[in-house]
Amino acid sequence: MTVEAPKLPGEGMVSRDHDVVSGAPVFVGTRVPISTLFDYLAEGHSLQEYHDDFPAVTPAHVRAVLDFAQDMILREQFPSRDTLRNYPR
Question: Domains, the chain, ranges and CATH?
Answer without folding.
Answer: 14-77 (1.10.10.10)
